[in-house]
Amino acid sequence: MKRNLVAVLMPLLAFGMGIGSASAAELRVTDSDFGAGYVTLAWPDLEGRSFVLEGNDGSGWNELYDGTNTASTLTGLRNGDYRFRVTSNTGATTDPLEITIAHHSLARALSVFGTGAVVFLILLAVLFVGPRRKAPAA
Amino acid sequence: MEQATLPSGIAWGIIAVFSLAWVLLGWWIGRRNDSLEDYMLAGRKVGMGFAVATAMATWVTSNTTMTAPQLAYQLGLWGMVGYSLGCVGLLLFAPLARRIRNIMPQGYTSGDFIRLRYGRTAWRIFLVISFAYSLGWLISLGMAGGILIEALSGIPYIRGMTVIVVICTAYTVFGGLKAVISTDFVQTILIVVGVVILAIMVIHRVGFEDVHDVIMRDRPELLNMLFPAAIMFLFNNLFFGVGEIFHSNVWWSRAFAFAPGVGLKAYLLAGIFWLPIPIVAGFIALAAPVLGINVPSADMVAPLVASEMFGITGAILVFVVVFSALASSLDSVLAATGDLITKDVYKGHFRPNASDRELRIAAVWIMLGLGALTWMLSVPHMATLGSLLQFMGAFVASTIWPIAIGLLYRKGSGVQASAAMMLGTMFGLVAYFTIGFYVAALVSAVVSMLVMLPALWLPDRFDWADLQDNLEEKTRRKERNDFGARPGTPRHTGAGAGEPVSYSAHRAGHQ
Fold first, then answer.
1. From CA B428, how far away is CA B446, in angstroms rounded?
2. Chain B interface, mutation test: which of A13, A84, A103, A123, most B Cβ atoms within 10 Å?
3. Continuous segment of H or E residues that includes residue A73
4. How far apart are CA B280 and CA B321, in angstroms?
5. Residue B202 domain-assigned?
6. What is the span of the domain harbouring residue B223?
7. Is residue B301 part of a domain?
8. What secondary structure letter does DSSP report for B32?
9. pLDDT 10s digits, A72-109
10. Rounded to two decimals, what is the model's pTM?
11. Which helix (H) or strand (E) holds B375?
12. Is residue B293 part of a domain?
């Protein structure tokens, strides 16, 4: 719920977040769907010209990105807990950010798929099995 | 933004050359528009070649070339396949296009049909949905233009977006639907050739094996055939596409504009030709992890990959392809939405007796206003392309059943159609915010179906002759102009006059 609300109301949220964190260099989530395994991380307030983004899935810290961008999108993540941090060329570092990826259950996914298939078949029946009439003369 | 590939001078040069070409073409073709019918419906004489090209070019939008990669980047292989299921809307609309042309040969908009078929309440709900969708689409196109230009050339988002919106508005205003369709033909060729070349370049530069190995290591779910969100996305996107096409005046205006007998084949062929394009575009996104390209926002993945991989030549190619896709869709949506507002809102609610000349002038101002509104709402870059687009799915999928049943059966009331659209939209939006974007359209379609489908077991209630009021209106207007007002002439003023007047009852009144 939160991810989609953020995506649609981003200007208001960005404004609020700007007021609330004017002096904090935090790593934040700007777009995500933890049920679909993706997250966009941003660090716009961190001082520096180049940044290193690291992630830890429990097996140790790994470098994910090294460059001048102030955001990065990670996709296709498996279920589990993840921690991220960013370090700039000035040595400044954000506090670690923790997220939990929890994909939708396969049962739910297959139920939705099955519902879609049934509704699609009904639509085909309505479109092609229904009565065909000649148009009245104009 | 890290290093741009396309020097800004070249980017501006390409924009200038193509923009001048589209505007001049639009002005030249627009000189031949003699009537409102010419302006809004290209004289109702569009042949097969142009028909296929315009249907395909309009459906190949910047969303195809940029959102399909985004969804591949987020949802993997099923994201690409799911996006390509958007072709089903074109295929299923093909027989409906023929039906529309047959039963409403003098029709102008999808709103005309809903008003005559279901009455004013359903009509107004439909107009709200249609306008919300059109505006969302226009904004996504404006945003895509800004994102593309910035990603490839470093030109600031707002500048690039502004130029795209201004140019497309200009040639659409000059030329009307004839210009839109003619430029679509050229843009289709550019898109198809460009995408094929890009696909070959991607496969040559980044092999399938490398893509597989890197993604399995770093983003394993993208290759998972049982990726839950992606599976849920498949039919959701199918119904989103069906809802878009079934309800949108972009497609109805073409059905009215195509010459008789062209619509069925044109839509079938367009659907078939369109199908592989999002898969090819989506594959480009999967090259990003292999090349170590950072993606700050998922909707930027395609231009970022292109600028990294192809150097200046490839960047120019991508630029031309996506610019053509943008232009071919932005002009279509502008024209069709302008038509809908002109006919159904301006004439339908405020100026029912407006002459064709007045409507043509109003259409110009309405399109300019739409262009301005699009620009204003594109400035803040409020969401990713994919999430904005799928938000609209909750709205449009609710119209599938009222449209399908309304066109093919004499069953179904205005109350049912209104409830189907409202409840479908409401539940679709709830699903969007509580579960995810990949179920909104499906939930909307299901709820709408549950409300509307029972109508098939009820008695017939609609007379197809009631769809003919446009012809009647023109006949009466001609008679008033030729002979002046006659005592006892029925006071039926066409659109906006209230519930549809039965054609057979009206004829009886004249006898």
1. 9
2. A123
3. strand A71-74
4. 13
5. yes
6. 8-379
7. yes
8. T
9. 999 999 999 999 999 999 999 999 999 999 999 999 99
10. 0.79
11. helix B356-378
12. yes
What is the residue-wise DSSP string for B404-451? HHHHH-S---HHHHHHHHHHHHHHHHHHHHHT-GGGHHHHHHHHHHHH
Which residues of chain A neighbour B380 with C-beta distances below 8 Å? 10-11
Residue B510 lies inside a defined structural domain of this protein: no
Query: Taken in order B504, B507, B509, B511, is the CA torsion positive or negative?
Result: negative
User: What are the tens digits of pLDDT across the range B47-74?
Assistant: 777 777 777 777 777 677 778 888 999 9
SS3 B355: coil
pLDDT digits (tens, 9 = 90+) for B282-318: 888 888 888 888 998 888 888 788 777 777 777 777 7
Contact B6, B153 (CB under 8 A): yes
> Which DSSP state fits B352?
T
3-state secondary structure of B25: helix
Q: How far apart are the first and last CA of chain A?
A: 51
Tell me the two tokens of residue B153.
């050339």
Query: In chain B, positions 306-365, which contact chain A (CB-CB < 8 Å)?
Result: none
Q: What is the CATH number of the domain that holds B46?
A: 1.20.1730.10
Query: For an interface test with A, which of B101, B103, B294, B451 has the most A Cβ atoms less than 10 Å from its Cβ?
Result: B294
B487's CB contacts (< 8 A; 6+ apart) are none
**Count of structural domains within chain B:** 1
In 3D space, the residue among B332, B259, B314 whose CA is nearest the CA of residue B57 turns out to be B332
Q: What's chain B's average pLDDT?
A: 79
Residue among B106, B220, B232 minimizing CB distance to A109: B232
- Name every chain B residue with its beta carbon within 8 A of the beta carbon of A37: 221, 227, 229
**Widest Cα–Cα separation across chain B:** 83
- Are residues B220 and A78, on separate chains, in Cβ contact within 8 Å? yes
Provide CB contacts within 8 A for B178, sequence distance 6+: B29, B30, B32, B33, B38, B39, B42, B43
CB < 8 Å from A in window 209-248 of B = 215, 218-223, 226-232, 234-236, 238-239, 242
Q: Residues B422, B424, B429, B430: is their CA dihedral positive or negative?
A: positive
**Which of B228, B380, B468 shows the shortest C-beta gap to A108?**
B228
